[in-house]
Design goal:
The chain has six helices and four strands, in the order ααααββααββ. By secondary structure, it is an alpha+beta fold. It has a single domain, classed as Muramoyl-pentapeptide Carboxypeptidase, domain 2 (2-Layer Sandwich), CATH 3.30.1380. The chain has a four-stranded antiparallel β-sheet with strand order 1-2-4-3, covered by helices on one side. Helix 1 runs antiparallel to helix 2.
């Protein structure tokens, strides 16, 4: 018997949050092992490749789950971002430009960075990894989407962990 089939909606939502925390913890364990064995530069390079691949797979599964259209533009991206595993463990939101030609995604709190701050560690320099991850995710949703980093650690910013801007190229 599947114990999840017997859970209430609230219990299933809590299980989703636990899975998301486990997913992120696994990523952290993997990265630390790579860093210990290969050094920070090689671990960062591998992390970027890994996140690029994962983001593509996650985007495809979200598109299927949410029945998002191919080439659904920034509207499809906004919906897909809200369904990522991150959304279960990190406060985040999207903002549209007044002309609705740009979508900004802000990770308001990052579980990874907050853990490092609590431990007295320097911020994790995730920008190169994030650039690959968010580009891969966005272009899987719609190949016309262009991604630009507005802010990402280790750049100082008190309000948000990171902010990304997405635009739709012509064609």
């Amino acid at each position: 018997m599947n114990p999840y089939a017997e859970m209430s909606r609230e219990e299933l939502l809590e299980a989703l949050k636990a899975f998301a925390k486990n997913w992120l913890a696994h990523d952290g364990c993997w990265f630390l092992a790579a860093e210990e064995r290969l050094g920070i530069d090689e671990a960062m390079a591998l992390d970027a490749v890994t996140w690029g691949r994962f983001a593509k797979a996650e985007a495809r599964r979200i598109m299927e789950l949410a029945k998002l259209p191919e080439r659904g533009g920034l509207e499809a991206l906004e919906r897909a971002l809200s369904l990522r595993m991150y959304a279960l463990v990190n406060a985040q939101h999207c903002e549209w430009s007044s002309d609705r030609k740009k979508l900004r995604f802000a990770m308001d709190a990052c579980r990874v960075q907050e853990a490092r701050y609590r431990k007295g560690l320097a911020p994790f320099p995730c920008r190169p990894v994030g650039e690959e991850e968010f580009r891969s995710f966005a272009t899987t949703i719609d190949p016309r989407i262009q991604t630009r980093c507005i802010h990402c650690s280790p750049e100082p910013n008190e309000k948000r962990a990171c902010t990304w801007e997405f635009t739709l190229a012509d064609g």
